[in-house]
Design a protein that fits this description.
Trigger_fact/SurA_dom_sf; 202 residues; 2 strands; globular
Amino acid sequence: MKVIKCIGFFVMRLILFSGCQTNGSDKIEVKMKSDEDLKEIADTYTYEDYEKVFEKAVSDADELEADGSLNKWLIRILAEEQLSYESDLTDDQVIKLAERALKEDEVWKSIAKEKYGVTVTEEEVDQYIKEGPDTFELPQMQAYAAALGLSLEELNHEFDRDIYEKNAIWLKLKPELEKEYGLIDNNKQVEKYQEEVDKGVY
């Protein structure tokens, strides 16, 4: 299976929340860090730097919701805030963004299954992870796993499994979208499919 080189939640398609509606008429505007700042973080951050980011994200997320399906999304949003956002989010904004990300993930996979008939088996997801994420030992992944009290294998195959399931689905979904949209460009397929997802979320 061809593997998309995706590293943890860093490469998951988190919504670019700038100016988008979360529910009803509510809007949460997020200013992203400059490309220069993002590159500096990518080039200079060490294990210790990432360790501080993830430990804080996990601690803050546990204060908002220690258990339940939203916790991992809270961690992802809080870590993303530290690494990528110029804006400082309130607790309420973090919760709303996490709720939206969870809902989007559910709708994304539902459309793939119900409209396009695309699903993946547990074995296919495991194979995807073994050929991709399991081959990397980057400091951000190690720090992420450590903050959660997990091994890298547990991080990839359990905690972040939902991300890699989505990536594996995408590989099988692309040919269907090429027929549906008449497009072969990956970025344009992503945009068109996101339009379908947004209709199901809002």
